[in-house]
Amino acid sequence: MQKTVDLEQENRLPDFGKTVREDKEERLRKQGFVTRPTMKKDAMALMTGRPVYTDDMAPSDCLIVKALRSPHAHALVKEIHTEQAKKVPGVVCVLTWKDSPQLRFTQAGQTYPEPSPYDRYIIDRRVRFAGDVAAIVAGRHCGS
After folding, report:
1. With the CA atoms of 109, 112, 113 and 114 taken in that order, what torsion angle do they form, in degrees rounded to the nearest 10?
2. Per-residue model confidence as pLDDT tens digits over 56-69
């Protein structure tokens, strides 16, 4: 003999006699947010341009650092001519793999008991992927 199940009965909460949906709707109504527009706390500040972002807080005497990224994957950098870049007004420093300390580090982030391999240089002669850092330039102001 097959037992028939009343789905409405199965959907009831044991102690309250309400369906799960009815209980949820009632709780939402009590909160007062359902069917009413709710303004974000920082909405007006964002609309009027008042929030300050870290890009807006750069001190006037700080250097701006940009990375020159490789357009090629799995490539070996033969040479980067930095003389012309160093002559640009405002440029303080241009670093390539020749200038970078050859101390390896890891980007993986695992810790003991499974240590990550120390397999990266800050700037490496071998670029592994398109977008890998090939050089770093530091200057007094940024053109864009």
Report:
1. 20
2. 777 778 898 999 99
Domain boundaries 56-144, corresponding CATH code: 3.90.1170.50
- Do 97 and 123 meet the contact criterion of CB atoms below 8 Å apart? yes
In the chain, where the domains are located? 56-144
Q: What is the pTM of this model?
A: 0.57
Q: What pLDDT shows up at residue 54? A: 77
Contacts with 139 (C-beta within 8 Å, 6 or more apart), sequence order:
63, 64, 66, 88, 90, 91, 92
